[in-house]
Amino acid sequence: MSNLGRLDLNLLVTLDVLLSEHNVTRAAERLNLSQPAVSVHLAKLREFFGDPLLLPGPRGMRPTARADELREPLRQALEALGHAVSPARPFDPAEARHTWRVMASDYGESTIVLPALAGLRKAAPHSRLAVLELVPSRIARQAEQGEIDLAFHILEDAPPGLHGRTLFAERYVLVGRTGHPELERPPSMERFCRLDHVIVSPNGGGFRGVTDEALAAVGLSRRVALSVPHFLFVVSALMGSDLVAMLPERLVRGNAALQVVEPPLQVPGYEMVMLWHERVHRDPAHRWLREHITRAV
Fold it and tell me: What are the structural domains, with CATH classification, of the chain?
């Protein structure tokens, strides 16, 4: 790198053409330079490499042994540099071999990743998708360091400094097993509070959530009999018991094993957002992935 710092990289382009043409005049024509300018470039190259590089011969110039050593590595380096600075090619998902990494909770897996998966496999059959467990405190750092490409999280808890797009708004409904005797019709507030509830506590072991805050605002409380860390476990627990839960509507939509009714109080919902870092904001492949997910949900 110290040697490169002393060298005008345009001189290497001149050397590459000279090694191809073996003639200063023809090299000047290809480079759209004057013959004296190419001669000056050659003099600087000779000084830099400490070698004549090209010597006069009966049919033009002939390369020295050092020049022959430089020919192929120089050609490969200039081609690689050309690719590096060329405009980004349009992304073709059918030919891509990407590995994308997204961070999601089990709720995000069910409501975002799963709806997008079949179309993703069809459109980009050679690419891979890794789903990492959602840890909100790590989203910003892992996105910055390139450990994840996307994260799916609630808007109110999204870390600052990331790009984001709202995917949908979610609301809570009251859910129990199909045939639950207390859910044949929407319960009164009194019956709602007497039911045995399940709560999702992502941090583990909590027995209070947004529903309890809404109840506390009107001076009421409910019975929370079970606290679990994952939404999907709640669904299984409801189907095998008389427990009930306030769950996001999208999680239980279309499940014939569950009875869904309107709760007797309004519980604030949330917006689900897709988050990504500036490092992938303009990348064609990542833009395609974000658009695909947005359409799918």
Answer: 4-85 (1.10.10.10), 99-168+272-296 (3.40.190.10), 172-268 (3.40.190.10)
